[in-house]
Specification:
Elements: H1 2-16, E1 20-24, E2 31-34, H2 37-42, H3 46-49, H4 60-76, E3 86-91, E4 97-109, E5 112-121, H5 123-145, E6 151-153, E7 160-163, H6 165-171, H7 175-180
Antiparallel strand pairs: 1-2, 1-5, 3-4, 4-5, 6-7
Protein backbone atom coordinates (compact mmCIF):
# COMPACT_ATOMS: atom_id res chain seq x y z
CA UNK A 1 0.00 0.00 0.00
CA UNK A 2 2.83 2.41 0.90
CA UNK A 3 4.63 1.57 -2.34
CA UNK A 4 1.48 2.18 -4.38
CA UNK A 5 0.91 5.55 -2.65
CA UNK A 6 4.53 6.54 -3.21
CA UNK A 7 4.30 5.66 -6.91
CA UNK A 8 1.06 7.62 -7.21
CA UNK A 9 2.68 10.69 -5.64
CA UNK A 10 5.69 10.35 -7.94
CA UNK A 11 3.45 10.06 -11.00
CA UNK A 12 1.37 13.07 -9.93
CA UNK A 13 4.46 15.22 -9.44
CA UNK A 14 6.14 14.22 -12.69
CA UNK A 15 2.98 14.70 -14.75
CA UNK A 16 1.94 18.03 -13.23
CA UNK A 17 5.15 20.01 -13.81
CA UNK A 18 5.77 22.10 -16.92
CA UNK A 19 9.41 21.03 -17.06
CA UNK A 20 10.39 17.89 -18.92
CA UNK A 21 11.76 15.13 -16.72
CA UNK A 22 13.97 12.59 -18.44
CA UNK A 23 15.69 9.53 -16.94
CA UNK A 24 18.52 7.87 -18.80
CA UNK A 25 20.57 4.75 -18.15
CA UNK A 26 24.06 4.56 -16.67
CA UNK A 27 25.71 4.85 -20.05
CA UNK A 28 23.75 8.06 -20.65
CA UNK A 29 22.38 6.69 -23.82
CA UNK A 30 18.85 5.37 -23.61
CA UNK A 31 15.80 7.30 -22.42
CA UNK A 32 14.03 5.13 -19.85
CA UNK A 33 11.44 7.63 -18.67
CA UNK A 34 10.06 10.94 -19.87
CA UNK A 35 7.05 12.87 -18.65
CA UNK A 36 4.45 14.39 -20.95
CA UNK A 37 6.13 17.81 -20.89
CA UNK A 38 8.79 16.53 -23.30
CA UNK A 39 6.24 16.90 -26.08
CA UNK A 40 5.62 20.56 -25.29
CA UNK A 41 9.36 21.30 -25.21
CA UNK A 42 10.82 18.95 -27.81
CA UNK A 43 7.85 18.04 -30.01
CA UNK A 44 8.27 14.29 -29.46
CA UNK A 45 5.66 12.18 -27.71
CA UNK A 46 6.86 10.08 -24.80
CA UNK A 47 6.43 6.90 -26.87
CA UNK A 48 8.67 8.34 -29.61
CA UNK A 49 11.48 8.93 -27.10
CA UNK A 50 11.46 5.85 -24.89
CA UNK A 51 14.32 3.56 -25.86
CA UNK A 52 16.00 6.25 -27.99
CA UNK A 53 19.38 7.81 -27.33
CA UNK A 54 19.11 11.02 -25.32
CA UNK A 55 21.35 12.70 -27.90
CA UNK A 56 18.30 12.88 -30.20
CA UNK A 57 17.39 15.94 -28.11
CA UNK A 58 20.75 17.67 -28.72
CA UNK A 59 22.25 19.54 -31.66
CA UNK A 60 24.86 17.40 -33.43
CA UNK A 61 27.75 19.56 -32.24
CA UNK A 62 26.99 18.73 -28.57
CA UNK A 63 26.52 14.97 -28.82
CA UNK A 64 30.14 13.85 -28.57
CA UNK A 65 30.84 16.38 -25.82
CA UNK A 66 27.87 15.00 -23.87
CA UNK A 67 29.07 11.41 -24.21
CA UNK A 68 32.60 12.39 -23.17
CA UNK A 69 31.40 14.41 -20.16
CA UNK A 70 29.19 11.58 -18.88
CA UNK A 71 31.94 9.00 -19.36
CA UNK A 72 34.38 11.28 -17.53
CA UNK A 73 31.92 11.79 -14.67
CA UNK A 74 31.33 8.04 -14.35
CA UNK A 75 35.10 7.48 -14.14
CA UNK A 76 36.12 10.41 -11.92
CA UNK A 77 33.00 11.65 -10.15
CA UNK A 78 33.94 15.20 -11.15
CA UNK A 79 31.12 17.39 -12.47
CA UNK A 80 32.09 19.64 -15.36
CA UNK A 81 28.89 21.71 -15.31
CA UNK A 82 26.69 23.15 -12.59
CA UNK A 83 24.15 20.39 -11.91
CA UNK A 84 21.71 22.85 -10.35
CA UNK A 85 21.36 24.93 -13.50
CA UNK A 86 23.20 24.42 -16.76
CA UNK A 87 22.23 26.10 -20.00
CA UNK A 88 22.50 24.23 -23.27
CA UNK A 89 20.69 24.31 -26.59
CA UNK A 90 18.24 21.50 -27.22
CA UNK A 91 16.95 20.20 -30.51
CA UNK A 92 13.23 20.25 -31.25
CA UNK A 93 11.76 17.52 -33.43
CA UNK A 94 11.35 20.18 -36.14
CA UNK A 95 15.13 20.68 -36.22
CA UNK A 96 14.95 24.07 -34.52
CA UNK A 97 17.33 24.72 -31.64
CA UNK A 98 15.76 25.76 -28.35
CA UNK A 99 17.50 27.33 -25.34
CA UNK A 100 17.25 25.09 -22.30
CA UNK A 101 18.06 25.24 -18.61
CA UNK A 102 18.78 21.79 -17.21
CA UNK A 103 19.11 20.53 -13.64
CA UNK A 104 20.73 17.13 -13.20
CA UNK A 105 20.43 14.42 -10.61
CA UNK A 106 21.43 10.80 -10.23
CA UNK A 107 20.46 7.70 -8.34
CA UNK A 108 21.61 4.10 -8.08
CA UNK A 109 19.26 1.16 -8.36
CA UNK A 110 20.25 -2.49 -8.54
CA UNK A 111 23.92 -1.49 -8.73
CA UNK A 112 23.32 0.63 -11.83
CA UNK A 113 23.64 4.38 -12.06
CA UNK A 114 20.84 6.47 -13.58
CA UNK A 115 20.71 10.15 -14.44
CA UNK A 116 17.77 12.52 -14.29
CA UNK A 117 17.47 15.72 -16.26
CA UNK A 118 14.84 18.32 -15.41
CA UNK A 119 14.59 20.44 -18.52
CA UNK A 120 13.06 23.91 -18.86
CA UNK A 121 12.53 25.75 -22.13
CA UNK A 122 13.90 29.26 -21.53
CA UNK A 123 12.97 30.68 -24.95
CA UNK A 124 10.68 33.35 -23.46
CA UNK A 125 13.32 34.39 -20.91
CA UNK A 126 15.97 34.66 -23.64
CA UNK A 127 13.60 36.71 -25.81
CA UNK A 128 12.87 39.05 -22.88
CA UNK A 129 16.61 39.45 -22.19
CA UNK A 130 17.21 40.24 -25.85
CA UNK A 131 14.37 42.80 -25.82
CA UNK A 132 15.94 44.51 -22.79
CA UNK A 133 19.35 44.59 -24.53
CA UNK A 134 17.77 46.05 -27.67
CA UNK A 135 15.89 48.67 -25.63
CA UNK A 136 19.14 49.63 -23.90
CA UNK A 137 20.87 50.06 -27.28
CA UNK A 138 18.01 52.25 -28.54
CA UNK A 139 17.99 54.27 -25.31
CA UNK A 140 21.76 54.82 -25.53
CA UNK A 141 21.49 55.95 -29.15
CA UNK A 142 18.69 58.42 -28.38
CA UNK A 143 20.40 59.70 -25.22
CA UNK A 144 23.83 60.17 -26.77
CA UNK A 145 22.75 61.41 -30.21
CA UNK A 146 20.02 63.80 -29.13
CA UNK A 147 20.49 67.39 -30.27
CA UNK A 148 19.07 68.42 -26.88
CA UNK A 149 20.71 68.36 -23.49
CA UNK A 150 19.37 65.51 -21.37
CA UNK A 151 19.81 65.10 -17.62
CA UNK A 152 18.60 62.09 -15.71
CA UNK A 153 17.97 63.07 -12.10
CA UNK A 154 17.06 60.87 -9.15
CA UNK A 155 13.89 62.55 -7.89
CA UNK A 156 14.37 61.34 -4.32
CA UNK A 157 17.95 62.50 -3.84
CA UNK A 158 18.13 65.25 -6.47
CA UNK A 159 21.43 63.80 -7.70
CA UNK A 160 22.23 63.76 -11.39
CA UNK A 161 22.46 60.18 -12.53
CA UNK A 162 23.58 60.87 -16.06
CA UNK A 163 24.02 63.73 -18.51
CA UNK A 164 24.60 63.59 -22.24
CA UNK A 165 27.40 65.51 -23.96
CA UNK A 166 25.06 68.25 -25.20
CA UNK A 167 23.92 68.94 -21.61
CA UNK A 168 27.57 69.19 -20.54
CA UNK A 169 28.31 71.70 -23.32
CA UNK A 170 25.15 73.71 -22.74
CA UNK A 171 25.53 73.98 -18.98
CA UNK A 172 29.32 73.97 -18.75
CA UNK A 173 29.71 71.02 -16.41
CA UNK A 174 31.75 67.89 -16.92
CA UNK A 175 30.09 64.51 -16.40
CA UNK A 176 31.93 64.20 -13.09
CA UNK A 177 30.72 67.64 -11.96
CA UNK A 178 27.14 66.67 -12.83
CA UNK A 179 27.50 63.55 -10.72
CA UNK A 180 28.60 65.66 -7.75
CA UNK A 181 25.67 68.10 -8.04
CA UNK A 182 22.67 67.90 -5.74
Amino acid sequence: EALRESEEQYRTVTESVNDAIIVIDQNSRIILFANDSVEKIFGYSVSELLGKEVTILMPDRHRDRHRTAVRSYAETGLKHVNWKSAQFPGLHKSGKEIPLEISYGEFTKGGKQYFIGVVRDVTERKQAEEAVRNAEVRYRAIFEQSPYGILLVDLETGKTIEANDIASKQLGYTHEEFAALR
